[in-house]
Write a structure and sequence with these properties.
363 residues, alpha/beta, seven-stranded mixed sheet, rod-shaped
Length: 363
């Protein structure tokens, strides 16, 4: 029997298998390496995305919180805007009301201006008439009294100084001490000498002296004072001749020695005028405002008076003035009586007299 022949191994085949096995191993190794790196990259990418997501969540929460705050702030601003609009509407209403008040005041001022023009026209006419009467009189006479000083003080027009019986009535109440209430109160508490040196009182006496000096020589004169009581400065019951210089000078001297005091009773003065025989045709009333009292029971009980009370006292006083008397009002300055000027002008106008507020350097 034949022995089988030994099979010969091929070197090429073995090498090929080695090569294939080695290649396959390399491929597996490469695959393993590639897959591992991919997982690491995926995990790394996932961590970064997760961090970004968390950051976005945090920003979202913060944004939502800020949104809530903004909504609350918007709500507050809306409330403030509503309050501001309401205030603007209220202010606009007030502005409209004030504009209506201004329009009413302007209309009243216009009416008052027209009234003043009419009154001024009447005053001008009256002054022209009195100026014509003055020019038609005889040449000016010498003064009854000589007034010391420099300059010419006879620059008043429309003031009629005539009449057979002339009464010069001067207010001797405490208000004649000064132009202001505060200074009147101060001077009332000072001694008699300080009161007699009051500039306003000296001016009032100088005014009396001026009228005495300018009175016609054919006239008869008397000087009356009034505060809470009215009386003649020389209470002998007689009228004094304008040519009696000594008697008139003594009366002026006595007046300068009389300090102003107490309140003002204009009614008492007019009642005194009614008792004079004969009654004066021409009265020169030197005062600084409305009366503050009279002899009525209601007035004696009253401790204070306001503007309305003083106007009522003035009206009652005018009711006691006898008919046929010309009243010339000379109103000196004093605070607190804004209506006095018009009422005294009306008194003088209704009696055919003249109203004046003298300048600072007169007489």
């Amino acid at each position: 029997m034949k022995r089988p022949r030994k099979r010969q191994l091929s070197v090429f085949l073995l090498s090929f298998l080695d090569i294939m096995a080695g290649g396959f191993g390399a491929v597996v190794l490469i695959f393993l390496i590639i897959d591992h790196n991919t997982m690491e990259e995926i995990e790394s990418a996932n961590q970064e995305q997760l961090a970004e997501v968390r950051l976005l969540d945090m920003r979202k929460e913060e944004g939502e919180k800020n949104l809530v705050d903004l909504r609350e702030e918007v709500g507050r601003l809306k409330l403030q805007i509503a309050d501001a609009r309401e205030k603007i509407e209220n202010i606009q209403k007030e502005v409209d009301e004030k504009e209506e008040e201004v329009e009413e005041i302007e209309l009243q001022a216009l009416d008052q201006s027209e009234t003043e023009k009419e009154l001024q026209s009447e005053i001008d006419i009256k002054e022209e008439e009195l100026e014509d009467a003055k020019q038609s009189r005889e040449d000016r006479r010498p003064d009854t009294l000589e007034i010391a000083g420099t300059g010419d003080r006879q620059y008043l027009t429309g003031l009629f100084l005539g009449g057979n019986h002339i009464l010069i009535a001067v207010d001797t109440s405490a208000s004649m001490l000064h132009n202001t209430i505060v200074n009147v109160a101060i001077l009332r508490n000072k001694d008699r000498g300080a009161q007699l040196q009051s500039k306003k009182w000296i001016r009032a006496v100088d005014t009396v002296e001026w009228f005495v000096a300018k009175a016609p020589i054919t006239s008869k004169l008397q000087i009356a004072t009034f505060n809470t009581k009215a009386k003649l400065i020389v209470d002998d019951g007689d009228w004094h001749e304008a040519t009696d210089s000594q008697a008139l000078a003594d009366a002026i001297k006595l007046l300068r020695e009389t300090p102003p005091a107490n309140g003002t009773d204009l009614k008492g003065l007019f009642e005194l005028i009614a008792t004079m025989k004969p009654i004066p045709e021409n009265v020169f009333l030197i005062t600084d405002g409305f009366p503050t009292t009279d002899d009525s029971r209601a007035s004696r009980r009253r401790t204070t008076v306001d503007g309305d009370d003083r106007r009522r006292l003035f009206s009652r006083a005018v009711g006691e003035l006898p008919a046929g008397i010309t009243v010339n009002s000379i109103l000196l300055p004093f605070e607190g009586d804004p209506w006095a000027s018009g009422w005294f002008w009306a008194l003088s106008h209704s009696t055919g007299g003249t109203y004046m507020t003298p300048s600072r350097d007169w007489p």
